[in-house]
Amino acid sequence: MPGLPASSTRFRIGTDDFELDGRPHRVIAGALHYFRVHPDQWADRIRKARLMGLDTIETYVAWNAHSPERGAFDTSAGLDLGRFLDLVHAEGMHAIVRPGPYICAEWDGGGLPGWLFEDPAVGVRRSEPLYLAAVDEFLRRVYEIVAPRQIDHGGPVILVQIENEYGAYGDDADYLRHLVDLTRESGIIVPLTTVDQPTDEMLSRGSLDELHRTGSFGSRATERLATLRRHQPTGPLMCSEFWDGWFDHWGEHHHTTSASDAAAELDALLAAGASVNIYMFHGGTNFGFTNGANHKGTYQSHVTSYDYDAPLDETGSPTAKFFAFRDVIARYRSVPDEVPAMRGDAPAFEVAFDAAVPLADLVPDDAAAWRATDAVPSMDQLGVFRGFALHRVELPASTRTRVLAFGEVRDRAVVSVDGVRIGVIQRDQHETAIAVPPGRILEVLVEDQGRVNYGVRIGEAKGLIGPATLDGEELTGWESLPLDLAAMAASVASASTFVEGDPAPVAFLDGPVLAHASFDMDAPADLFLDTRSWARASPSSTASRSAVTGPAGRSTRSTCRARSSARAATTSSCSRRARRRIRSWRSWRSRSWGTWSRDPRLRVSSGGSGYGPGGARAHPPADPRGPPTPRGDP
């Protein structure tokens, strides 16, 4: 492996401490998920972690990112785990790898691929043969990358974690033992850990005696370390997830936590002699359709940004927490004199769309592209594990309004009759039915807004969950189409014409559209698309308008990165989760399909999460519910 020295060292767990080459060693790590950061920026983020005083980088491994299809294992570009670990080593730092297979992480499905559950017999996070066979294939591929990069072989990896907060989900000791055996058989010789929230029940259920227990929490460090010590009587205490911020759901205020309070908790951890992994050091972005969701009575989709109010914000700029944490760490070890430069923000600008195509014009006419079924299929039954599906059915003749109902809608359905949109059914509003006027052809456009990543709903199917009924009678004879958004985006891009200056305004019609805009850049840069000026008409009144928003009071943005001197072009579908690639850019999303109340324009700024127009810092109010509590219940 290039960049790794031939010399070998050892990292082990001693009676009281971690031991590096036989000497006591405290781990001060920070979480940085390679799959949430543009690969061109990995080295920059790793370097900034070292400048804050960290000695270790921790990362999850997202199974469904590497294996979007059964049998696939992609390690190209932003999924090159080996290159990421080599960059950590080149910076003189250690690495902790947490391959799951379940990772939570506010990531789509907690990292478990949707295709894994096509067969309803597959068990979730337990010693069920079909599940274990798929897990084994994935982990073996991961360990082929990790094993030669262990510290014993001259690499950076010092710890590997088994599963993730398993005590909150199950107590199948045979499942955990299977993961341990596979890990050791795959050549992993560094210490193995587990992590659980610091309750007696979770710590006792989520580990094995041969594994080193660690905790996950963000406050009351002294109390929670004491709980952890009862279950891990020897060896070092470690908080493997020190929650320094929190994630956001759509419609909420951006979660922030006090830098001084977080620094005081970090100080308490270090004063107790504990090791720590700061979660997150840099959160990054949920690119494409990769955000997860919570469901504790109400479905809550996570936003595209994973800023997390971390020491480095979504743009990679140091925040107040960076300097507060650096000051705390400096009390316990030396930190570099150098600090990262603050990032300057370029003026915001607007871009007009040069093409807009109704979704109906992009749907293939070829009957062979549609799948005919008697009962309405879920997205999983169609082989759609992220994105959208379109369903249509011929309605029984009638002259009166009837009620269309489904068992469940997961997660958002736009309902049309004879090409006219009549309304939306939304899971987060606990809706399952809608009034349908007389007509011939019913169409339902279904959107997966993120698979649940925590709790008992992990592994559930997406889309329309039957039965579909009309006034209580089952509606049959469906045709369904997985939407190939990449092909549709290419069609819209080909319909656009590049002209110097602003193009003529594009007319937006009622219903779903895909739109295209482009602009030039002189050099690579992170940019954010602000869609707060976009609006959609209510289906019942053209006078009613609602803003296209994400977290309450914030613009809907996520990171875009354009290559030097490239003409950057995007096709957007104006959907809550419909985000297109912008050539080599990171993707973005807006709120919902709908009718635009005026000619929309893209406002583009270099300010990231928490920034207002023009890149000026905006400080939305703190969440009124107070500081975060255990994961999945902020």
Short description:
The chain is of the alpha+beta class. It is built from eleven helices and 34 strands.
At the fold tier of CATH, the topology name of the largest domain is: TIM Barrel
Helix content: 10-25%
Look at the structure and name the CATH superfamily of the largest domain. Glycosidases
First CA to last CA: what distance?
A: 42 Å
Keywords: Glycosidase, Hydrolase
Catalytic activity: Hydrolysis of terminal non-reducing beta-D-galactose residues in beta-D-galactosides
Organism: Clavibacter michiganensis subsp. michiganensis
Biased composition (Low complexity): 539-575
Which helices and strands, and how do they pair?
Layout lengths: L10 E3 L4 E3 L2 E3 L2 E5 L9 H11 L3 E5 L2 H4 L14 H10 L3 E5 L30 H18 L10 E5 L11 H13 L6 E5 L3 H6 L6 E6 L3 H11 L6 E6 L15 H13 L3 E8 L10 E3 L3 E3 L18 H10 L19 E4 L2 E4 H4 L8 E3 L13 E8 L7 E4 L2 E3 L1 E6 L2 E7 L6 E4 L4 E8 L14 E3 L3 E2 L2 E2 L3 E5 L2 H11 L17 E8 L4 E6 L4 E4 L2 E7 L11 E4 L4 E6 L28 E5 L29
Parallel strand pairs: 4-5, 4-11, 5-6, 6-7, 7-8, 8-9, 9-10, 10-11
Antiparallel strand pairs: 1-2, 2-3, 12-13, 14-34, 15-28, 16-27, 17-23, 17-27, 18-22, 18-25, 19-24, 20-21, 20-23, 25-26, 28-33, 29-32, 29-34, 30-31
Helix pairs in contact: 4-5, 8-9
How does this model look, in words?
With 634 residues, this protein is α+β, with helices and mostly antiparallel strands. It has an 8-stranded parallel β-barrel, surrounded by 4 helices. The chain folds into 3 domains: 319 residues, TIM Barrel; 142 residues; 119 residues, Sandwich (Jelly Rolls).
